[in-house]
């Protein structure tokens, strides 16, 4: 079943005296439970596209459909996780994770039950009473992912969530992310600059062209999990993606 569909998404931005055409007609179809990685040259509009899917921006042309209905605003079924996690420093880890549930009026005990499951899943139980400044960057990112997952969204939108992590932490989270996806069966859209990351995570990888961007190619990846970054069987796919990407980066 199709979960999300982008139809001819066009987006302009105002830059001083001129209009910059960021998205030039993006078309993408995403089935329920797919893990779709978005790669493309810097500034091509990947984050803009994700924000449009989240309902945080409106396209100038085209439409996003969620379960066949047009997206007109943000909604709890589409939750975005940003690169820096955007946590609340004045709240403890558990309160950060429960924040959306509290806003939704879920009673305290029920909130605690739900957050416990995701704190366990993200190996954060011991840190439930810590403040976010007491955590490493990788742990903060796990809190941000847990905070999104407690809301049980249909679609998780992730904007370079691992970009600020060291290589070892990132490799661990890449395995954890695959396990979470297998356990929760969420539909995931994941923006990354890292082609290896894209092949490790994705059921498919959508390559954006240079601005005004369109989807240049979609590459399907049907390979056993959990996938590891050092798996050489993924190299040919990485080369295929890079061969699509390099000419776009040069144009940039
Ligand atoms: N709010 C805004 N106002 C003006 N221009 C914007 C705005 N947001 C994005 N842009 C422009 O739109 C283009 C696409 O930006 P966007 O951040 O979506 O690209 P990206 O592919 O995610 O980039 P990167 O890979 O470097 O993070 C860029 O040229 C950027 O300058």
UniProtKB/TrEMBL annotation:
Q: Name one Pfam family in it.
A: ABC_tran
Q: Which residues form the ABC transporter domain?
A: 4-235
Residue stretches spanning the membrane: none
InterPro entries (alphabetical):
AAA+_ATPase (IPR003593), ABC_transporter-like_ATP-bd (IPR003439), ABC_transporter_ATP-bind (IPR050166), P-loop_NTPase (IPR027417)
Q: Which GO terms describe its molecular function?
A: ATP binding; ATP hydrolysis activity
Q: Which domain of life is it from?
A: Archaea
Instruction: Name the keywords, alphabetized.
Output: ATP-binding, Nucleotide-binding, Transport
Transport among the record's keywords? Answer: yes
Official protein name in the record: ABC transporter related protein
Q: Which organism is it from?
A: Nitrosarchaeum koreense MY1
What is this organism's lineage?
Archaea, Nitrososphaerota, Nitrososphaeria, Nitrosopumilales, Nitrosopumilaceae
